[in-house]
Amino acid sequence: QVQLQQWGAGLLKPSETLSLTCAVFGGSFNGFYWSWIRQPPGKGLEWIGEINHSGSTNYNPSLKSRVTISVDTSKNQFSLKLSSVTAADTAVYYCARNKELSITRIQGISKRYYGMDVWGQGTTVTVSS
Amino acid sequence: DIQMTQSPSSLSASVGDRVTITCRASQSISSYLNWYQQKPGKAPKLLIYAASSLQTGVPSRFSGSGSGTDFTLTISNLQPEDFATYYCQQSYSTPRTFGQGTKVEIK
Predict the structure, then answer these.
(1) Inter-chain touch B44–A122, beta carbons under 8 Å
(2) Residues 6+ away with beta carbon under 8 Å from B20
(3) Phi and psi dihedrals of A54, rounded to 5?
(4) Which of B32, B51, B81, B88 could form a disulfide with B23 if both were Cys (CB 3.0 to 4.6 A apart)?
(5) Chain B, 44-103: which have a CB under 8 Å from a chain A CB?
(6) SS (H, E, C) A42-99
(7) Distance CA B80, CA A3 (A)
(8) Are A69 and A99 contacting, i.e. CB atoms less than 8 angstroms apart?
């Protein structure tokens, strides 16, 4: 059974860099996209970005200038860095596996359906001076 | 970005009720729609993918329907453990976006 375990600093000052790591246990690291999602206190979910085992990334344009997601396949880990944090970056940060759950073929065109099926436990990050 | 809008934002229901939550996308997303359940202090849990496919291990009282821009999550015979917040999420394109959530509370 795949499990994700995440860790990182929980208290930051404005302008510092947020750094979190997520380790994958009990399953393959290859063949998936690995995502970061955050949730401000009392609010909804915001997708930050994702990476696959070969290092191909997709980022949320709203955060792209400040976000770096990297991967260490030797350790089955992926990491998030968010620079120049402000109070607006205060949130619970989650890592998750984005898995291809089904494929359909219609008129020769393949449709691949993905979902975030395994999640880390969440890390509370507070930005305060 | 594709905007996802859920309604209602919250609802009150009783055990045994049938509950319906809707999700609308700002453009057609075919069937690239997932539903998640989140309980307080916990990570979200995937319930439905591809608009209507039940994730392994999820009770059959959960069902999803829709395609294009309009989608529905239905919980039949609501159980005490179903009181939670539900989110839709589109997997059609990046950035992957979520609805604002629907909180299902006990009446």
Answers:
(1) no
(2) B72, B73, B74
(3) -90, 0
(4) B88
(5) 44-46, 49-50, 53, 55, 87, 89, 91, 94-101
(6) CCCCEEEEEEECCCCEEECCCCCCCEEEEEECCCCEEEEEECCCCHHHCEEEEEEEEE
(7) 27
(8) no
